[in-house]
């Protein structure tokens, strides 16, 4: 687990959530659900990856309409990826046609949709 990278992803996500909290109650809900994890990430206390399904907040993107905030959706996907152990070398490997493989971020954003 790369605690520095997780901390960076957490700080980025926090900034975006903070910019939306006043105007969208769903962003405030996301903040409340993620606060313990983001605080632990900011303090570099998380040492082991979490299971993808155990990271809260995903349903808010589909059920509460947070999908309309692309920057938030992307930052959340990056945070979840890092929290679940980061991108694997397999996912960073180029495709057979010489094109880069889709990143876990792109795959994560697709699963949120």
Description:
- Residues 86-113 are annotated as: Disordered.
- Residues 104-113 have a biased composition (Polar residues).
- With 113 residues, the protein is mainly α.
- It has one domain.
- Helix content is 61%, strand content 0%.
- The protein contains six helices and no strands.
- The chain has helices at 3-20, 25-42, 58-63, 70-83, 89-92, 104-112.
- Helix 4 packs across helix 6 (104-112).
- The two termini are 27 Å apart.
Q: How many β-strand stretches?
A: 0
Question: pLDDT under 50 segments (min length 5)?
Answer: none
How many helices does DSSP assign? 6
- N-to-C SSE series? HHHHHH
β-strand amount: under 5%
From the structure above, extract its key features.
113 residues; mainly alpha; 6 helices
Outline the fold blueprint:
Blueprint (H helix, E strand, L loop, with lengths): L2 H18 L4 H18 L15 H6 L6 H14 L5 H4 L11 H9 L1
Helix pairs in contact: 1-2, 1-4, 4-6
Give a brief description:
Residues 86-113 are annotated as: Disordered. Residues 104-113 have a biased composition (Polar residues). This protein is mostly helical and 113 residues long.
